[in-house]
Amino acid sequence: MNMDLVSEMLELGRRAKTAARELARLPSERKNAGLLAMADALASHHDAILAANALDVEAASAAGLSVAMIDRLWLDEKRLAGMAEGIRAVAALDDPVGQTLRQWTRPNGLRFNKVRVPIGVVGIIYESRPNVTSDAAVLCTKTGNAAILRGGSESLRSNVAIANALRDGAARSGLPADCILLIPHADREAVRLLAEMDRYVDLIVPRGGTALIETVVRHARMPVIKHYHGVCILYVDRAADLEMAERILLNAKCQRPGVCNAVETLLVHREVAGAFLPRAAEILRAAGVELHGDETVRQILGDGVVPATEEDWTTEWLDLKLAVRVVDGLADAINHVETYGSHHSDAIVTADEASAERFLNEVDSATVYWNASTRFTDGGEFGFGAEIGISTDKLHARGPMALEELTTYKYVIRGTGQVRE
Amino acid sequence: MNMDLVSEMLELGRRAKTAARELARLPSERKNAGLLAMADALASHHDAILAANALDVEAASAAGLSVAMIDRLWLDEKRLAGMAEGIRAVAALDDPVGQTLRQWTRPNGLRFNKVRVPIGVVGIIYESRPNVTSDAAVLCTKTGNAAILRGGSESLRSNVAIANALRDGAARSGLPADCILLIPHADREAVRLLAEMDRYVDLIVPRGGTALIETVVRHARMPVIKHYHGVCILYVDRAADLEMAERILLNAKCQRPGVCNAVETLLVHREVAGAFLPRAAEILRAAGVELHGDETVRQILGDGVVPATEEDWTTEWLDLKLAVRVVDGLADAINHVETYGSHHSDAIVTADEASAERFLNEVDSATVYWNASTRFTDGGEFGFGAEIGISTDKLHARGPMALEELTTYKYVIRGTGQVRE
User: Fold this and answer.
1) What's this model's pTM, rounded to 2 decimal places?
2) What ipTM was estimated for this complex?
3) Which residues, 6 or more positions from A107, have their beta carbon under 8 angstroms from its beta carbon?
């Protein structure tokens, strides 16, 4: 074990816990002033951030990363201004902390208040673009939580520069700078240590690939809210408006195939398979989608359909590929979703309300849709104003995770000397 | 690894998952009819349960367990009737499943419904009395969850007999018998396996001692809601009504010292220590309480006070013992609570509203009290009708965990063909 790293991580934990206690006491106005100062600091640290980013981009080019990857990494004036605008938008949102969730009085006169409070210290692990450093940090500050961030190795220099700017903005406005801490190490050992620090870290949110999530799940001693994969399924029922089904399918599969709420499997009721599949295949192929079909699908569509394997039904393609199966009816469709799906976002297209309601009731997913695209699973589309991501877990946060999900509650009980009989 | 046990546990998991899917679809009336049938089955299985219990009691006597332990284990007509009554009371409660938590419509016409749904399969691990088998199982059935139970080794025969009765009642009323499954093994290996079965188990609730909780936390891959210890703290402020403080202290320490919401540490403001400590010590000593005090406490109270060690401030005595410290003021008291407390239930006694509000705001515990005994931290006293226990965790369930906390939510979204722009 690397004892220097251990003591460095423990020190980060202690500093975060101290900052969280201070932050939890501050009124919304103070936190919002801090957020605006952070947005300003991104501008005043402009040169340092872009210089650090240039080094990351240079290293990524030298390492032969793809153009798409480098584009994700790249920061410029416009993107930096976008990050600052994002912070100002979060400052303008309502603060859930302090809200009364329920209040009641017992016959003995005790007055109960269930109130929203910050969670404390939130560890966020991500692999994507440097703007996540800012987005994730400010959502935590807004809700009175200290954040310990750990971004991807390829954007480490950019992340450090962005975190420095945010910390500077926080300190200038009188917030504890340690409300935002970034782990300046790229190795996985730091993730394992963070996951074991339940004395200091109240929640850990991993967003990323299978190996990262597995490391966190295996080691975590505190609650974990995974942002994992979406094997989203669209079921076209016997009673579907086929023109509507076509539009929803095209949107759910092709509008942005690389995201977790894109559809990966299409189920079609046997009675409309002959009518629906050829027209669906035509528009999908025109959009460049490769189809993996079961035997019936291949009989209907002929050549050009890859035979679907068992593994295809659980595959998150994140690509212009689609697994297609013909089912015998609603029960068969629900069974498929429950057996192979990832319980992220699943949809039925049908004009039959009874079938729709049964699907909505029996499919145990974070979000279930009737006659709409799965692509709406998103904090912004839900009207939440911002999101930390899409939780694929079942407890505390399920589906889009926004400001409310970054809080918990406590019971405040006011009495006049009551004792228990 | 014991492969027979592994395959047996996996089979339990599969059966529970299947039962959970079936149970989740049933309306409240069907679940309540099942609960009433379970209550009746406790009566019809009366002889088998009492015979199994007699064997447990005999083995416990032979093993030299204390009279108190044997009394906890013991079942008779009256206690069995009490268990059945408890089930009927749960049947009469409102079912949280299906409740709409929030609904809204977006500008694009999508209608959102956030609804309560069962969690799925809940693993409950406990070490206490055999009636917990029935109490925990029926709260899960009520909320549409399948339960996998694992009780203490000394009550294994009784637990098996009770679970058999409940399963029989469930089956007779048409519920899946596998909605209640009991692990018929006393070894810790079964707990470890259960904690690793995140494919089948959605939540694990350990109620018990440090070693048991540690096993679960170390191995769990799914959310854990610990029912751990309570180092509850009472702070008597400068502005306290000392007569009220005395009554609350006596109640919180002595009414039932062996439970998690009993007070373990007393903090007294320096300015009232001379007036309060002698009278408090007198009534506590009359009740048989041993005091562990800091230097100031010992100066005031003289002989007979055990010098408090650093460890005493984090000790859950569960006994007629109390750690006592004099503090310099409110900030010092809050600091002590945040440093040494277990964030379970903490109380301030004061007539000064500003001090009370600051304590209620800054103490980050599941339940915080002003002028009332910590003994009220209990599902029944909160008015929840029933409880699975007191969560010492911060997320999903904090404090008394009742029916609502045995549910989660999903988003049901109804559209008319909407696609994302």
Assistant:
1) 0.95
2) 0.96
3) none
